[in-house]
Amino acid sequence: MGSRSSHAARIPDVDSLRRETGSVSQASLRRLYDRFQALDRTGKGYLSRLDLQQIGALAVNPLGDRIIDSFFPDGSLRLDFPGFVRVLAHFRPVDEEDEGNRDPKEPEPLNSRMNKLRFAFQLYDLDRDGKISRHEMLQALRLMVGVQVTEEQLESIADRTVQEADEDGDGAVSFLEFAKSLEKMNIEQKMSIRILK
Amino acid sequence: MSGRWAPGPRWGVLLALLLALGELPRARGVEEEPGGAHGEAQGFQVVTFEWHHVQDPYIIALWILVASLAKIGFHLSHKVTSVVPESALLIVLGLVLGGIVLAADHIASFSLTPTVFFFYLLPPIVLDAGYFMPNRLFFGNLGTILLYAVIGTVWNAATTGLSLYGVFLSGLMGDLNIGLLDFLLFGSLIAAVDPVAVLAVFEEVHVNEVLFIIVFGESLLNDAVTVVLYNVFESFVTLGGDKVTGVDCVKGIVSFFVVSLGGTLVGIVFAFLLSLVTRFTKHVRIIEPGFVFVLSYLSYLTSEMLSLSAILAITFCGICCQKYVKANISEQSATTVRYTMKMLASGAETIIFMFLGISAVDPLIWKWNTAFVLLTLLFISVYRAIGVVLQTWILNRYRMVQLEIIDQVVMSYGGLRGAVAYALVVLLDENKVKEKNLFVSTTIIVIFFTVIFQGLTIKPLVQWLKVKRSEQRDPKLNEKLHGRAFDHILSAIEDISGQIGHNYLRDKWSNFDRKFLSKILMRRSAQKSRDRILNVFHELNLKDAISYVAEGERRGSLAFIRSPSTDNMVNVDFSTPRPSTVEASVSYLL
C-alpha cells in the first residue's frame, strides 16, 4: 500500500486538523487516513455516498442512511479527509485532563458531551428546525423498533416519548430538553470508540 | 414500637431456643435405650418416641429453622445490621452455637462437610447469580474479568505459595512436615476470591455496577483455575515431589483449558435444552418452574461427573438460558422462579456462614502457628493488591472506561475468601498432606478475617473514598429509545472507521440470535413481543394505570380521568403519597 515514510507529510493539513478535532493522536490520524484510502476504492481522493453505502454492515443498520447523510452536510457530494475526521472526532473518548486544561475562550472540542449529543440530535431532527417534532420521533421509532408493531402502538410510544421530555409544552423536543432527558446517561462512554484515543 | 434496641423478651425467646437445641445432641445419645425398653414392653404402645426414625431430616430442618430465625433476630436491630454485614453476624452466631454443642456433647457433632457444601449449598447461589446476571454488562467487561480471574488467581496462588515456602525455609515457622508442593497446594486453594462472600458483602455496599461485575465475575470465573490448580498440586503431592515431570506440568496447563471450556460447553448445552423445553410447556404451566431448577442442577452435576468446572457450567447455563426462558414461561412462573431462586440462594448463604462458624469450634482440627497465619494474611492482601494494580495498568490501555485508583482499592480490598476455600481444604487427605490441620486452621482464620473484618470496614471505606455508587432509578422511555439509537450509531461509526469493537460483535450476535436461535428456542408468540422499548412502554403504562386507579379510589370514582386537566399526562403522580399496600394489591390483579 505504498511507502510508509514521512507519514504526516502525506496527510493534508495535519496540524490544523489535530487542533480542530481536539488533539487526536498522530497514530489515530494515521489509522483513519489508511481507512479513508481503503474506502476510496477508485482512488479519487474523496469519498462519495456510494463508497460509504458499500460497507456491508451499514446497509442493515436502521440509522445507516441518516448517519451517512451526516457526513455530507449541506447537500455536498464529496467527502474529503478533514470532513471525514471531523465527524469521527465526535466519538473520541472524553479525556478528563483535556477538560481541565482547556482554554475557555477556544471553542468546545468536538468530542465534548454537548457536541456528542448534538450529533445524535441532528440525526433525529431531519428538517433542521432545532426541535424534534412528534412526527420526527415517530419516524425514528419506526426505523428502530424492529418487531411487528401496530401503527397505533408506535404513535402512542412516540407521543409518550415526546411528552416525557417536553418541558415547555410545545409538543416538540428542543435540544436542551433532549440533553436534559439524558442527563443521567453516561454519554461520554456510550458515544465513544477506542480507535480515536 | 419504638426503634430502640430493646433487650428482654425477644432475645429471651431466642436464647431459650438455642438452649433447647443444645439438648438435642443428648437425645441422639439415648437412642439405644428406648429400643431396649421396647423390646421388653408388653402389649400395644399407643404413642412411641421414635427419635432415631426422624433424626436426620429433623436435625436438618431444625438447623434451617435456627438459621432463618437468626436472620429475623438480626434484623430486629436496624442499627446493627446497617454496620455489620449479615454474614459476619451469622459466623458469630455459628461460633456461639458451636460452643453450646461442644459444651453439651464434648465433641463437635456438626460441621460443614464438603459434600453438603458442593452438592446442595453452592449450586443455588451460583445459579441465582447466573440467571440474574446482567448479560450486557458481563460480556462488555468479559476481557477484564477473564484477565483477573485467570492471571490474577494464578499470580495469587504462585506468589503466596512461594513466599510461604521461602519463609518456611528461613526457619521462621518452626518445625513443620511440609514441602514446596504442599505450600503451592495451600496457595492455590487460598488464592481464589469467593463468590458467596463477595455477594454477601457487596450486596450491602452498592458500589457502581461496573466495579461489582468485575469483582463478582472474577469470583465466578476463577473456579476453573482453582479446580485445576488444586487437582494438579494434589496429584503432585500424591506422586511425591521428585516424581513430577515436565509432561505432568504440560498436562496441567492443558487440563485448565479442558476444564474451563468443557464446563462452559456443558452449561451452554443444558441452557439450550432448557430453553427448548420451556418452549413447549404451555400446557403444563404449574411445573414450568421445576424445569429451570432441575436442568440447571443437572448441568452442575454433569460437569462435576466429567471432572470439569461445575461452577462455570451452572453459571453459563443461567446466563445463556435467561433470555429465552424468561420469554417463554408465563408471568406467574417467572415470578415463582425468581422468588424460589432467591429464597434458595439466600437460605444456602445463611446456612453456609452459620456452619462456617460452627465448624470452627472443633478442638480436634486446631493447630496454631503464629508465623504461618500472620504471614498468610499478609501475603494474600499484599499480593492481591500488587496483582490488581499491575493488571489494571495493562488493562487501562485497552479499556474505554478507565479503572481509577479508587476502583483498584475496592477491588483489592473486596477480594474476599469464603467457604469454597474451606471446603477444599477439608477435602485434603491428611495422609498425603501431613499438616492438614494447620492448613484448615489458617483457612478458617483467613475466611473469618476477610468476611468479618473486611466486610465490616468496606462500607466506611467505600463512603470515605467516595466510590461511585449504583443508581437505582425508574426506566425512562427516552433513555431506552435514545440508548438504542446510540448503539446503532456506534455500530455504524465502528463500521465506517474500520474498528472491530464491542458494538460490532454485539450486533453480529444480535443478528445471529434473531435469525436462528430465537426461532428455535422461543415461542412464536414471544418472538414478536420481546422488544425492550415495548417492555418499558408497557411497564410505564401499567404504572400510570395503577396511579389512576389509586387516585380514583381516593376520590370515589374514576370520573376525573375525563377532565381536561389530565390530558397528556405521563408518569402521573398525584400529590398525596400512596400507601404501598394499595399498589401491591392492584398490580397483582393486573
UniProtKB/TrEMBL annotation, chain A:
One GO cellular component term: nucleus
Subcellular location per UniProt equals: Cell membrane; Cytoplasm; Nucleus
Q: Which domain of life is it from?
A: Eukaryota
Q: Which GO terms describe its biological process?
A: protein transport
Q: Where is the EF-hand domain?
A: 27-62, 112-147, 153-188
Q: Where does this protein chiefly localize?
A: membrane
| PROSITE patterns found in the cross-reference section | EF_HAND_1, EF_HAND_2
Q: Which GO terms describe its molecular function?
A: calcium ion binding
Q: Which Pfam family, any one, appears in the UniProt record?
A: EF-hand_7
Keywords of the record, alphabetical order, are:
Calcium, Cell membrane, Cytoplasm, Lipoprotein, Membrane, Metal-binding, Myristate, Nucleus, Phosphoprotein, Protein transport, Repeat, Transport
Q: Which family does it belong to?
A: Belongs to the calcineurin regulatory subunit family. CHP subfamily.
Q: Which PANTHER family does the UniProt record give?
A: EG:114D9.1 PROTEIN-RELATED
Protein name according to UniProt? EF-hand domain-containing protein
Automatic annotation (TrEMBL), chain B:
Pfam families given in the database record:
Na_H_Exchanger (PF00999)
Coiled coil residues, start to end? none
Highest taxon, organism lineage: Eukaryota
Catalytic activity, reaction form: Na(+)(in) + H(+)(out) = Na(+)(out) + H(+)(in)
Q: Name one GO biological process term.
A: sodium ion import across plasma membrane
Record's subcellular location: Apical cell membrane; Early endosome membrane; Recycling endosome membrane
Signal peptide (UniProt feature, chain positions): 1-29
Q: Name one GO cellular component term.
A: recycling endosome membrane
Q: Mind telling me which residue stretches traverse the membrane in this protein?
A: 58-76, 88-108, 114-133, 145-168, 180-202, 209-233, 253-277, 346-366, 372-393, 405-426, 438-458
Where does it mainly reside? Answer: membrane
| Keyword vocabulary terms for this entry | Antiport, Cell membrane, Endosome, Ion transport, Membrane, Phosphoprotein, Signal, Sodium, Sodium transport, Transmembrane, Transmembrane helix, Transport
Specify whether Membrane is a keyword of the entry: yes
Instruction: Select a single GO molecular function from the record's annotations and give it.
Output: potassium:proton antiporter activity
| Residue ranges constituting the Cation/H+ exchanger transmembrane domain according to the UniProt record | 64-464
Topology in the membrane?
A: Multi-pass membrane protein
The UniProt entry, under InterPro entries, shows: Cation/H_exchanger_CPA1, Cation/H_exchanger_TM, Na/H_exchanger_3/5, NaH_exchanger
- Family the entry assigns: Belongs to the monovalent cation:proton antiporter 1 (CPA1) transporter (TC 2.A.36) family.
Q: What is this protein's function?
A: Plasma membrane Na(+)/H(+) antiporter. Exchanges intracellular H(+) ions for extracellular Na(+) in 1:1 stoichiometry, playing a key role in salt and fluid absorption and pH homeostasis. Major apical Na(+)/H(+) exchanger in kidney and intestine playing an important role in renal and intestine Na(+) absorption and blood pressure regulation.
The protein in question is named Sodium/hydrogen exchanger
Lineage, broadest ranks? Eukaryota, Metazoa, Chordata, Craniata, Vertebrata
